[in-house]
Prior knowledge:
The protein is α/β, with parallel strands linked by helices.
Amino acid sequence: MPACQSWLWKPWRWAMSDIGGVEEIQQEARKKIAEEKTAFEKKPDAPHTGWDFAGQMFPRIPFPWEVLPGGVADSLQQLGRACATSPAALPGAGFCLMGSIMGRTLAVSPKMGWDSPLNIWHMDIRPSGEGKTPPVHLMAGPIHEAQLKEEVRYRGGMEAYKGLKRKDREQTPPPTPPRGYFFSDLTLEGLRDDLINSPHGGIVGIHDEISAFLSGQNQYKPKGTDREAWLCLFDGKPTRIVRAGKTMYLHGARVSIFGGVQPKVFRTFFAGEEGLYLEDGTLYRFLAICESPTYYDLTPESWGDRDRGKWEAVLYRAMDWGDGKIFDCGGRIEKSTRMMFNSEAQTKFFGWRNEIYSFKDLLPPQLRGFLPKAVEYVL
């Protein structure tokens, strides 16, 4: 079997063991699941309203840092202290960065015929001035570094290419355009061009304000269908957009997105347009965290090399692993390697999924659409 189509279970376990603390993480996760199952079983004195029931089934809890490798958890919490802000949104940004690095290289498969792409959309809902932006840009340092290297390579290659004599230039292919690692402003047209140069379709949107992504979806056609195309891309499906005079076909994109949004702006988008962003499933695709304004002391603490290295080592290792897979596949990955569930994982996953779906009709209609996406995110 070619290396680019191999199964991944053992290699993935080995890679995770390099990070450290895998068994401890699994034990903590199992403990957390057991606690939640005990706490949220149906009781005779069930809540009287759908919202009360939702609050009982899905209570608001602090981020469970114990499910992350210890070094990563310590690093991100230290980053929050260094920036005098809450660290609660940082794991979500980290998941987006990792998803974009993996791209089509990896998919999670709970059973044959069900492949879940590593597309993650995350928003941090807090007022302006709460420090949403600085820490996530620091986390993205390795991504920025990789993008800079690509831009420098391309510029240098183009200068050398243009310096060739005409006869030599006609016989020499121009340098390949830079691979895209991240974007802060992207249209479907731009994504199509980036996909041509991407070996695995992975890219991450890093937004100071997530509203820029939402408002830009139908930038060239206010009543257009760009939003529907983005929803297909999130689900890992191909999409075909027909415009006057041209057609675009997008296949294999793995786009993760994260950014902050102010509560008022959030309400404007997701309560406006007669609730379209809710009804069409846009909101359901976002992992959102919402916190009240909180004061944090600014201290001499910093995110030094040691703490930064704990996080960046994970990103660099993932990038090296992904680049190795790309090399094995001749420079481009078309078929994802699957992380297959074993029988124990299937039993737990299907049991959890069926349990929350059995309560679906008791939830408010506005929340029911989150369940399918919650299942995908758990994968």
